[in-house]
Design a protein that fits this description.
Keywords: Oxidoreductase. The chain is of the alpha/beta class and 255 residues long. The protein has a single domain, classed as 3-Layer(aba) Sandwich (Rossmann fold), CATH 3.40.50. The chain is 44% helix and 15% strand. Bound molecules: nicotinamide-adenine-dinucleotide (NAD).
C-alpha cells in the first residue's frame, strides 16, 4: 500500500492557538503546506495577519485573540465554522512561562497568569471545540502542548509553570476518555527544550549550553522539529491514538 503523506489532512480545518510563537508558527506553516486551512489565534493582530499572508494554500483566517476570556471561546469556534464550514483539529500551543529565581519568589499573580493561559483557557477552548466536533458528527482531533516539566516538576521558580503542564497531561487523558464516544481523539505533545523566545527568556548563553549538554542528541530542538508530530497526530495515521503524551526531547527525558 502506498504511504500517503497527506494522510487526510488536505482540506481539514485547523484552529491553532499561539500561532505566531516559535513552535506555533512552524505548525501553521506545516498545515498550510499540506493543504489544510488554518485559523491562526494569537495576541498581536499584525503578527497574526503577517503569518496568514505568508502561509501556503488557504484561504486561512487571522483571529487575533487573547485566550483568557473563556466566555469568548464559543464565538471563536463559530468564526472558524463560518469561514471553513467545519472544525476538524484544535492545536493549543499558546502558553506563558514565568521563571523566578526560587520557589519563594513565585507570586499569586504569577500562578494565576500561567494557570489562566496554559491550563484554564486550554480546557475551555477544548470544551468549545469538542462541542462543535460532537455536533458536526464527524469526530475531531485535539492536540495540547505540555512540557518536560509535567514529568520533572520543573525547577525552583518554574514549578508553577510545570504544574500547569502536569494539568495538561491529566486533562488530556480525561478528555480523551470522555470524548472517545464522539470520535474525538485528544493527545499531548511534550517538548523538551526548543530554541524559541520562551526557552531563551531568563537564560543566558551559558545556561542554554548547560541544557544542551544534558540532551543525548546534543542540541535543543528547532521549532520545526515539533511540527511533524503535530501533523501526524492530526492525520489519518493517528486515528487510533488517544490519551497519549508524545515525548519530543532529544532523549533529555526517556519514557
Ligand atoms: N520552547 C520550549 O523549550 C518548550 C518546552 C516545553 C514546552 N513548550 C511548550 O510549547 C508551546 C509553544 O511554546 P514556544 O516555545 O513556541 O513559546 P513562544 O513563547 O514562542 O510562543 C507562545 C505563543 O503563545 C502566545 N500567547 C501567550 N499568551 C497568549 C494568550 N493569552 N492568548 C493568545 N496567545 C497567547 C504568545 O503570543 C506566543 O506567540 C507552549 O505550550 C510551551 O509551553 C515549549
Amino acid at each position: 500500500m502506498a504511504f500517503d503523506l497527506e494522510a487526510g489532512l488536505q482540506g481539514k480545518s485547523v484552529l491553532l492557538t499561539g500561532a505566531t510563537g516559535g513552535i506555533g508558527r512552524e505548525v501553521a506553516l506545516a498545515f498550510g503546506s499540506v493543504g489544510a486551512r488554518v485559523a491562526a489565534v494569537d495576541i498581536d493582530a499584525d503578527r497574526v495577519t503577517a503569518l496568514v499572508d505568508e502561509m501556503e494554500g488557504g484561504p486561512h483566517l487571522a483571529l487575533p485573540y487573547d485566550v483568557r476570556p473563556v466566555a469568548g471561546h464559543t464565538a471563536l469556534v463559530e468564526q472558524v465554522i463560518d469561514a471553513f464550514g467545519t472544525l476538524d483539529i484544535l492545536v493549543q500551543t499558546a502558553a506563558v512561562l514565568v521563571r523566578r529565581p526560587s520557589v519563594f519568589e513565585v507570586s499569586e499573580d504569577d500562578w494565576d497568569f500561567q494557570h489562566d493561559i496554559n491550563l484554564k483557557a486550554s480546557f475551555f477552548l477544548a470544551q468549545a471545540a469538542a462541542r462543535c466536533m460532537r455536533d458536526q458528527g464527524t469526530g475531531g482531533r485535539i492536540i495540547n502542548f505540555t512540557s518536560q516539566g509535567w514529568q520533572s516538576g520543573g525547577y525552583g521558580g518554574s514549578v508553577a509553570y510545570a504544574a500547569t503542564k502536569g494539568g495538561i497531561v491529566s486533562m488530556t487523558r480525561g478528555l480523551a476518555r470522555s470524548l472517545a464516544p464522539d470520535k474525538i481523539t485528544v493527545n499531548a505533545v511534550s517538548p523538551g527544550a526548543v530554541d524559541t523566545a520562551m526557552m531563551r527568556s531568563g537564560m543566558d548563553d551559558a545556561a542554554m549550553a548547560g541544557v544542551a549538554a544534558q540532551i543525548p542528541l546534543g542540541h535543543l530542538a528547532k521549532p520545526s522539529q515539533l511540527a511533524g508530530t503535530v501533523l501526524f497526530l492530526g492525520s489519518d495515521h493517528a486515528d487510533y491514538i488517544t490519551g497519549a503524551t508524545i515525548n519530543i526531547s532529544g532523549g533529555w527525558l526517556m519514557y
